[in-house]
C-alpha cells in the first residue's frame, strides 16, 4: 500500500500550525482488490533531515465488520405491485390537458 494525498489540518504543505494535536489524513493506493489498512505509524523530522522529533510508534486500527458481514441472513423480500396498478407518485390520467 502506498499513501498519497497527505494533509495536515486539510492543508498539503502547512507552515506554523497553531494546533497542539493537528489532524492528519491520507489516502491509500494498492494493487490488491479490497486491501484495507490495519495499522499506521507516523514519524516527523526536522527540515527533512534524519533527526527524528516525533514517532507515533505502531498504532493498530479497530476494524469493524461491514453491515453485510453482521447480518448473514437472507435479504428482506420486497412486495410486488399487482399487475396494472399505478406506480407510487405517478398519475394514471391520459390525454392532453
Total number of beta strands: 6
Q: Helix content range of the residues, please? A: under 10%
Average per-residue pLDDT, rounded, comes to: 75
Low-confidence stretches: 88-92
Structural notes for this entry:
The chain is mainly beta and 97 residues long. The protein has a domain at 2-63. Helix content is 4%, strand content 25%. The chain has 1 helix and 6 strands. The protein has one helix at 67-70; strands at residues 2-8, 24-29, 39-40, 43-45, 52-55, 59-60. The strands form 3 sheets. A two-stranded antiparallel ribbon has the order 1-2. It has a two-stranded antiparallel ribbon with strand order 3-6. A two-stranded antiparallel ribbon has the order 4-5. A hairpin with a 6-residue loop joins strand 4 and strand 5 (52-55). The longest helix has 4 residues, at 67-70. The chain is globular and about 40 Å long. Residues 88-92 have low confidence and may be disordered.
Search tags:
97 residues; mainly beta; two-stranded antiparallel ribbon; 1 helix; 6 strands; globular
Amino acid at each position: 500500500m502506498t499513501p498519497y494525498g497527505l494533509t495536515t489540518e486539510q492543508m498539503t504543505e502547512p507552515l506554523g500550525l497553531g494546533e497542539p494535536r493537528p489532524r492528519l489524513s491520507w489516502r491509500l493506493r494498492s494493487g490488491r482488490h479490497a486491501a484495507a489498512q490495519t495499522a499506521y505509524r507516523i514519524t516527523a523530522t526536522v527540515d527533512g533531515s534524519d533527526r527524528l522529533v516525533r514517532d507515533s510508534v505502531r498504532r493498530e486500527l479497530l476494524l469493524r465488520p461491514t453491515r453485510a458481514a453482521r447480518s448473514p441472513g437472507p435479504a428482506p423480500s420486497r412486495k410486488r405491485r399487482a399487475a396494472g396498478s399505478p406506480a407510487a407518485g405517478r398519475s394514471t390520467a391520459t390525454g392532453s390537458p
